[in-house]
Amino acid sequence: MASSAEQGDKYRDFMYGEGEKDTVWRFGAPPNYDVVNKLFEEGRTQVWPVGSLEERVQRLVKTWEMELVHKVRPEDYKSINPQKFRLSLNGKEGLTVQQIRDMGGSYNAFLQTSLPPELRIYDPSVETAESSGKEFATTFPRGFAVEILQVLSGPPVIVYKFRHWGYMEGPFHGHAPTGEVVQFIGTGIFHVDDGMRVEKVEFFYERGDFLAGFLKGGPLESILASGSRCPIMNA
């Protein structure tokens, strides 16, 4: 089977072709989404017709996430207006592209918290882009997929419901893998310009419910001390 790097990605734009010949990629080349695309296709609850509003919004969601994570220079963004871009979570003040970079990337931006450090399952104040990326890649070896469940309004203010999910098949911050789905459902609002470039993103979701899913397997230290084996490795 040909890889996405050979044919282009089925669900994301602005990764290959002449328009990306000068793009600076975080890891030296466009990312390959074959594994998470497979997870998406196997686990999605909706299959939107190509060209429908829902399919176009889903493609935009996947594309801007890809650009924000993998493109080093804001001038290489094509789905985002970097000069106007702001990202806000649950009504908090919007973050610029530079602020997201300064706080260690998108995982840390999405998992902001006001809890005291001793109560944090995941502490974005001490994680870097490298450590957070490695952590979630270990926890979700098949990736962390996103789908659009419903589009409530079209451009220029796009309101939609989304679902993000993955299988916890690796440890997370000292907690044992369960093999179970960890997911969250939320609402997103995109403010786009005439060229469908994202100028403002607002997300509303329950951060705590998502992170609580990582605790079900219990602390690895306790499991190892008791002689038990990893839950998903039991025969």
In short:
This is (wild Malaysian banana) hypothetical protein. The protein is an alpha+beta fold and 235 residues long.
What's the helical proportion of residues?
Answer: 25-40%
| Total of helices | 8
Report on the biggest sheet: 5 strands, mixed
Strand order of the largest sheet: 1-5-4-3-2
Mean pLDDT metric: 89
- Terminal CA distance reads 31 Å
Strand content: 15-25%
What's the total number of strands? 5
Explain this structure to me?
With 235 residues, the protein is of the alpha+beta class. It has a domain at 81-227: Nuclear Transport Factor 2, Chain: A (Roll), CATH 3.10.450. The protein has eight helices and five strands; from the N terminus they run αααβαααββββαα. Strands 1-5-4-3-2 form a five-stranded mixed beta sheet.
List the SSEs and their pairings.
Blueprint: H1 4-7, H2 34-43, H3 53-70, E1 86-89, H4 97-102, H5 106-110, H6 129-139, E2 145-153, E3 157-167, E4 181-192, E5 198-204, H7 207-212, H8 220-226
Parallel strand pairs: 1-5
Antiparallel strand pairs: 2-3, 3-4, 4-5
Please describe the structure with a list of short key phrases separated by commas or semicolons.
Nuclear Transport Factor 2, Chain: A, alpha+beta, NTF2-like_dom_sf, disordered N terminus, disordered C terminus, 8 helices
